[in-house]
Every structure is written in C-alpha cells, then in structure tokens.
Amino acid sequence: EPLSTGTSVRVWRKVNAEIRKRFRALGPMCFGEIVLIVVVVLLVLLWLLREPAGIEGWAQVHLETITREKPSVYGSGGTSKAYLNDSWTVVTLSLLLFIIPKENPFKAAGFLFAAPPGKKLHRSDKMLDMATVMSKTPWDVIVLLGGGYALASGCKESGLSAWLGKSFDFLKDQPSVVIALVISLLVAMLTEVASNTASTTLLMPILASISRELEMNPLYLMVVGTISASLAFCLPSATGPNALVFSFKEIKVIDMLRTGVFMNVLSVLIVVLGMSTWGSSILGIDGTFPDWANSTTTT
User: What is the pTM of this model?
Assistant: First the structure.
C-alpha cells in the first residue's frame, strides 16, 4: 500500500535523524583516516595526471629528465617507461602505508619526541602491516587473474592465438550474424567449465586474431564473446552462484542442465540479436575492418 505524503515525510525525517545520530556517533576523523584519504586522493591524481590528453604528464616529464641527465643509461627513455604505469603508482603509495604511523607523530608525547616524565616512549603502529596484508588479501583472486593474464600472453607469444584465428577461415564468407552466433555458442560452452575471468582473458587475443583473419571489426566479436562469457547456467562448477544453489542438495545436475541449456540458447540469441542491431549502432561498427585493428600497420 503506498504511503501518504504526510507519512512519507515523517518516515524520511526519522531516517534522516537516525543517519545524523549515527554520523555524530562516529566522532571526529582520526589521524589514520585523514592520512588514508590523502593517500587515496593522491593516487587518483597521479593516475589522472600520468599521461593526460593534451598536456605533458608527470611520467613524460620524469622520462625526459632522466633521459637528459643519463642518456647513456636510459637512451630514449623506453626502458623506464615500462614501470611508470598505474601499477607502479599503486605499489609505491601502498609502501607508504607501511611507514606512516596510525597516530599523529607531531603531537606532544608522540614517538618523534621524548616521552613525558615517568612514562615509556610509545611507538605507534603503522597504517598497514604484513599480518593484515596476508590475512585480508584475496590471494585466490590474484592467482586467478594473474594466471589468466599469463595464459593469454602465452597464447599470443606462442602463436596459438594466430593459429586459432586462421582455423576460422571457413567463416570468412558468412554473414556477421552467423559468425557472432558461432562465437557466442563456443564461448558459452567454454565458460561452463572455466571461470568468466579466465574465459575472457584467454579468448580476447584469440578473438582479435579471428577478427583480423575474417577482416571484421574486433569490437563486434570481442563484445559478443565478453557478454557470452557470463552465460554460465548449466553446471554447478560454472560460477559461484550455481555452486551455491547446488549446495542446498534440492537441485540435481540434470535439473540445472535442463533449465540451463534453454537459458543459454535464449541468452545467446539475445546477445547476437542485440549486438547485430542497436549494439553495432552504439559502437559505430559499420562492417569494415578498422585501421587501428591492423597489427601490421606502422606509424
């Protein structure tokens, strides 16, 4: 039943009052919270100003400086540019948290000053320590992502991606809808036995190679493949929610297969239809092979 205007106003006032009460109960921000906000803001600024469009970023200025000072060591700066990326910025600022104390070191009786008479010198804990890192870091996710990236890089460097791309030559004269349908079905079947992240990380270089062989816009196949990697409805091992539902022992594998196959087929058709109509219009895909996707193009 919808609430009246007066009742809605009273409910909103109560909610607002409770939020204000909880906010006041938090008290003033401590030194550690202020430091963390400053570090996060600094991280975002370094990300945005590393290589901004139209102006020189701090990474470019740094490279020009060290190249000018030590040309025999750094040459054109290409060696140093490899580590001046977003990951380097995160790691550097994270290391600061192992050094900065939780308590304000500049206040009276802080660890930078002598302890008051009759009291021992108290050294503040740091913002971050290895015990917290080891217990809170999702190592399984890191290994999964890192393994997927390593696998994708191995496929590209070994030539497997190019070989698989050439093996799809039989689709070269087929309509784009048929090609998207085949790719979507293959990815949907693969993601039933592999995680979404592993599937997309492995398949993106392969789909790029297939696009070059078929002379199609890579966005067309890669978007279809990325969305299809989430169509995991058939097996308990396909994704976490499937395993959670299956753990209640009320549903058998055959039940999931019976429903999942129908959902997979329906979802594949929706993905292909959507990408072939409004998806292509939004992404500006006109059926031609773009110059930026040609790996043999030199600048």
Answer: 0.54
Span between the terminal Cα atoms of the chain, in Å:
65
> Could you tell me which residues come within 8 angstroms of residue 123 by beta carbon, excluding any fewer than 6 positions away?
101, 111
* Residue showing tokens 């270089």: 205
Copy the structure tokens of residue 288.
């031609």
Helix ranges (DSSP H) in 191-217: 196-214
Give DSSP secondary structure letters for 220-272: HHHHHHHHHTT---S-GGGSHHHHHHHTTSSS-HHHHHHHHHHHHHHHHHHHH
pLDDT digits (tens, 9 = 90+) for 214-254: 888 888 888 998 999 888 888 876 776 777 777 777 778 88
Cα separation, 175 vs 15, in Å, equals 57
Reported as a single tens digit per residue, the pLDDT across 77-128 is 444 455 677 888 888 899 999 988 887 776 654 445 555 555 555 566 788 8
